[in-house]
Predict the structure.
Amino acid sequence: MRITRLKLLILVVMSLFGLGAALEVFFTYYLLGQSLPGCQPGGFLDCARVLGSTYSQIFGIPLELFAAAYFIINLGLVYLIAFGSDGVFRRAINAIFIWRFLGLMIVPYLVFVELFIIHALCIYCTMMHIAIVADFIIISYLLFYKGGIGAQVGLESIPEEEVGAPPSISRASVSSRAGPISGRSAGWLGTELHAKAADLNRGLQASLPLER
């Protein structure tokens, strides 16, 4: 597994939370035709007013089904991040960020419709909105904080003990690599020093009679 169990749990928990809310609305309200627990008919938390409005469906399909599909795709991408190959892992990281960002873009519109057009709030819709926003915050944090899963994209794993360790160079390896060169250099240097010393000696001897 590419990520720790804690990070895997963090990545899936809000998606499961949102998926549960979406399925509860679909089965209880749409399939069974029953009132949702916790809602207040005629009050501000009137789920039936929100779900019964024209804004709750697209082409006759309840938005809760789209929300359920959104969270299921989220979970599928998390699975690819945790267990996919290198190439799949990189593509899944990019895809889940874009996917969750798209979900985030829809939330303000839906909240605006509930508050300013329908004048009622569905607590299950709000739960899904919270899950979408939290999902985006979580994936952004795990991608961009130092040492997060985003740091693995395009990078090979390096053992911790090797990070910052200077390469070890033995004396034998240096001498074996530099042996022929250092021998010639030493001979040339010795010749030059001998010539300089001879010139200095001749100069000193030539100056002695002048001092006398």
Observations:
- The CA atoms of residues 180 and 186 lie 10 Å apart.
- The domain at 5-155 is CATH 1.20.1440.130 (de novo design (two linked rop proteins)).
- Confidence is low (pLDDT under 50) at residues 154-183.
- The longest helix spans residues 171-211.
